[in-house]
Amino acid sequence: xxxxxxxxxxxxxISWLLGVTSDFLNARAMRPAPPREFRDVFDTDTYRQSxxxxxxxxxxSSLTDSFNTAVILIVILFGGFNLLDQIIRSLGLxxxxxxxxxxxxxxxxxxxxxxPFEAYxxxxxxxKFGFNTTSLTTFVTDRIKGLFLTGLIGxxxxxxxxxxxxxxxxxxxxxxxxFAVAVSLGLTYVAPTWILPIFNKFTPLEKGExxxxxxxxxxxxxxxxxxxxxxxxxxxxxxxxxxxxxxxKRRRIALFDxxxxxxxxxxxxxxxxxxxxxxxLGHIKKRMFTGILKTGAIFYLMSLFLxxxxxxxxxxxxxxxxxxxxxxxxxxxxxxxxxxxxxxxRISRTHEYEADAFAATTTEYPDSxxxxxxxxxxxxxxxxxxHPLTVWLGYSHPPxxxxxxxxxxxxx
Length: 412
Prior knowledge:
The chain is mainly α.
């Protein structure tokens, strides 16, 4: 048996089984009543809704994963990748154009198949539980904008990678690595002013008690902000969030308008303090450095497999090509990707605890962070008792109950 075929098929099935098992155990881990720490924000109806939302989300996730896995397996087993390749090759275009069309066609097919699931999630599942505020116009224009940006930026990146791999010999992976990192850092730099405003409106936070409190805290923590903005998150959902964008002197914080409506000034300051903690404790730099190393490792590994005829045989390909090799390596990389994801999530959860501790220490009032987490959990109908396997597989943040219990240790 072709070893690549065996690895790819096995890893796809194992990944699917892990997801199904995780959802099953997660459902069994639910409790009939909320933990005592949440009884002040979760009444009977809210807690019942949170469990119904969790179950509905898991069923939807399982259905989506099952569909995607089945499609990939069918395409592999029945030679779909080779069929598409032969159709595009028949156009008689250049190797670069053929490669871009091949990868673009796969992306477009994948996006088209996922569109009904996205629509159902937005207009049925999220609407049922009172989260969705997205209009059909916004939904459609978001996808069009996303498709345009993906085609533009992704096209440039893929074209450069194909050219490097074809022309740069044994050191091609180094050129690919450097270019990919440069694009990634460039996007991070321009995103706050050029990309994010394409999808959302960012308005400077008006002067007042909240802005003064946030600026006072940032100054006390020795943290420079280029701006504090309010994002119209309510345009798409009632859920709340806050995040940093950019880096260096272009670093700014964005607060969802829904967050500002739901929380007190002290709670929002605590949320800012948590995000500042990530920066001051070096989490952002560590994440960026790790991502750069990971990208380099991926390109190096990719260079080892692109010329492997058995890899192409696993997909029933009549002819080898660099562009198809890129696609096949992504599937071959599945088991390693899963392992690295678990490790990355474990590190991320540790960082979240550290950022919570930073917020509790620098604000000198951990109860603000605790109450902020409680409100977020209630308004977002979070699952309060996830199963350890679910956390291990996919949680980049610790369960909120664990975070609250850790924060309580910082009370004076």
